User: Fold these one by one.
Assistant:
Number 1:
Amino acid sequence: MPYEPPTPPADLSTEFVNSLNESSPDRLQDIARYAEALAEYKVREARLEEESAEDDIDDRPDDLPEDVPMKATITIKEINDNRYYYWQWREGDTVTSKYKGPVNPDE
C-alpha cells in the first residue's frame, strides 16, 4: 500500500501549497510550530477582545440611555435660573448633548 502525500485544504492558494511542497521537513516543522503558535495567539486576542466588549456593556451605567455613547460625560447647564443635567459627548467637531434631568428634582 503506497503512502500518499496529504491533500492541502482547498482554500490555500496554489502558490502557497507549492511553496510548502518545496520546503524541507525541518522547515515544514518550523512553519507548523509557528502556525500553531500564531493560531493560539489570534484565538486568545479574539477572546480578550470579546471579553473586553462584554465588560464595556456590563460597565454601562444603568441610567445611560441606549442612544448615548459610553464616552459621554454629565454636564450641568443653567437655563432661566434652573440647573439641569445633560449627557454630553463629542462627535467629530460637534459636541452633542442629551437632556438627563434637573439637578434638583424637587424644583
Note: Helices lie at 14-21, 25-58.
Number 2:
Amino acid sequence: MTVFLIVGLPGAGKTTRARELEAERSALRLTPDEWQMAVFDRDSPTRWRSAERAAHRDRLEGKLIEIGLRAADLGLDVVLDFGFWGTDERSALRWIAAARGLRTEVVYLPIGYDEQRRRITARSGGDPAQFEMSDAELRQWHTRFQAPDVDELRDGTIPAVPAGHASWAAWARARWPSWRPGQG
C-alpha cells in the first residue's frame, strides 16, 4: 500500500490533487483543513491561527495519521493532504511507513507567490468559510517552507533523526502529541 504525502503551500492545488489520487486509487483521503473547519465551524476565518487552534491542529493531524496508517495496514492506499512544510515531518512519516512495510510517495506541488495570491483570493471569494491569509503571511510562509529535494521525491535516503530524539517515532510523538505508534 502507498501513503501519499501531499506537499505544498496554501493555494498550490494540494486538495485538488489529493482528490484526484483518492479517485484514481480508491484511496482514503485525509485533509486536516476539512476536519478543522467541521469541528471548529463557528471560528472566524482568522481564529485558526491562534495558539489554541495550532495545538488542536497538531492533535487532529496525529489522529488522522493513526487512521491513515491503520487503513494502509488494512490494504487501502492513503492520501495525507497536510501540506507537510518541513522535511522532518515528511522524513518521520516516510520512516514510520517503511517500518510498517508501507510505501510512501511525496507529491510536491510548487507555487509562486503571485499565482498563490490569485488562487487564494479567488477561493475565498467563493467560500467565506475559507481561512483568511494576508500577503505578509504568504510571503513569510514561502521563507519557512522546505521544498523536497530530488532524493526525497524519489523516496531516497531518510535523513538522520534530529538531535534530541531517539528515533523518528519519538520525533513524531513530539510533533503530533495524539499519535501513538501502536494505534496506527
Note: The radius of gyration is 16 Å.
